[in-house]
Amino acid sequence: MHIIHLSVECFPLAKVGGLADVVGALPRYQRKLKQDAWVVSPWYDRPFTQSKKLKTVFEGSFFQGSEVLHYQVLKEGKDSLGFPLYLIKIPGKLDRPEVYCYPDEAEQWIAFQHAFLHWMKHANIMPDVVNCHDHHVGLVPFLMKHATDFNQFDDVKTVITVHNGQYQGWMPWNKGVLLPAFDTWRWGLLDWDGVINPLASAIKCSDAFTTVSEGYLLELYEQANGLEGLFRTESEKGFGIVNGIDDAYWNPTEDELIPNNYDVAAVKKGKEKNKKTFCEKVGLDASLPLLTYIGRFAGEKGADLLPEVIENIFGNPENKISIFILGSGDEQIQANLQALLDRYPDNLKVFFGYNEGLAHEVYAAADMILMPSRVEPCGLNQLYAMKYGTIPIVRAIGGLKDTVVDVTEKNGYGFVFPEARAQDAVSAVERALEYIGGRGKMQRIRKKEMELDFSWDKSAQQYINLYNRL
């Protein structure tokens, strides 16, 4: 089966969030299952494209409104990611260093989708399935069925994977003139609440939609930033498939980014060595339990709760603990954390930004990871953490609820709290501190979670089963 994954993020080409990790791994695992899976992404002026040998395989041009856009399709020559990677480069549109943050983002993504279809048509590429990832490419299912120039793709099956339904790509109807010519009688398939809504269009026009966990699929029926009714109406073609992790890359046994490798049998000594090395590096006391937060400083991640959580934890003299935070985002959250650094210099350290190598070191060193999310379609950090024997403390939401079982339940291995409130998170951390202080309990949890299978093998097969069903 020929599958094309269409996405504006793909690790290690360009990563902003979990979308990149999924698109950088799922096609490789599908190829292991004997499927011909490709990835098509925009070209970015980043270290990946500068360091790789890219071959131009196609060139073309098309009108976007009154503007003529010329594009190239470049292929990464050695398939070094484990799958064919094609990059679309458009001068002035898709040739920039960052993925997001530009004021003409709508024009960028329209151009990307139009160039993709134009290339497929003129290069005579006819896939079996196009799997679109998030709203940035959500117009493709509509255009493949109703655009005048691309109706030969009407029978190609389309799937939209919703990584985060809060973002939908809204654009005013005056942007409609930038789209390829389409059957205007079908304008309602683009519209939601008076604007063009690419995610809504994809849900309407695709043959199926998936979410990145079963729990998140159910949540979208009740909370989807205005699309709840649409998700419920189209529920018969909705499927929840939990994300996997690339256990070749996230593997403490072979990870080249951590100082001391270890497996489940040697997790106690391995974690201790990594923790000692890491704490010496950042200036923390390695004899204390180490709690971490890794991620964006955003409200949906519950990051605004961190300052209050930290103050409440350190405000209780019985809590002997160190905290390390790795992340960036909201400036007010950063300022609040910076202020706390001055108050708790011995027990709190923060790295503002993101560093892939440092993230691996943190997972290998930390005892616990906190995820107080308000929205978490799947969550990958808890999966990475458990692979490294780091105990998850998570809010019961989305994929966190699907993948972490509280220690009070049978075969539990984590700590789950009900609401995105600082006191709930603090109570869970204190419960974890008390629990892991018990004789041998930490090691039992670590071994249990490290033996869980959250690899892409099972999830990749579920996607293939869905494609075959279509």
Automatic annotation (TrEMBL):
SUPFAM superfamilies for the chain: UDP-Glycosyltransferase/glycogen phosphorylase
Q: Which InterPro entries match?
A: Glyco_trans_1, GS/SS, Starch_synth_cat_dom
- Name the family: Belongs to the glycosyltransferase 1 family. Bacterial/plant glycogen synthase subfamily.
* GO terms for MF: alpha-1,4-glucan glucosyltransferase (ADP-glucose donor) activity; alpha-1,4-glucan glucosyltransferase (UDP-glucose donor) activity
The gene behind this protein is glgA
Report which reactions are catalysed by this protein: [(1->4)-alpha-D-glucosyl](n) + ADP-alpha-D-glucose = [(1->4)-alpha-D-glucosyl](n+1) + ADP + H(+)
Q: What is the lineage of its organism?
A: Bacteria, Pseudomonadati, Bacteroidota, Sphingobacteriia, Sphingobacteriales
Task: Locate the coiled-coil region(s) and give their ranges.
Answer: none
Q: What does this protein do?
A: Synthesizes alpha-1,4-glucan chains using ADP-glucose.
Which amino acid positions bind ADP-alpha-D-glucose, per UniProt? 15
Q: Provide the alphabetized UniProt keywords.
A: Glycogen biosynthesis, Glycosyltransferase, Transferase
Starch synthase catalytic domain residues: 2-232
Quote the protein name from its UniProt record. Answer: Glycogen synthase
Entry EC number(s): 2.4.1.21
Q: Quick one: which pathway?
A: Glycan biosynthesis; glycogen biosynthesis
The top EC class, named as a word, is transferase
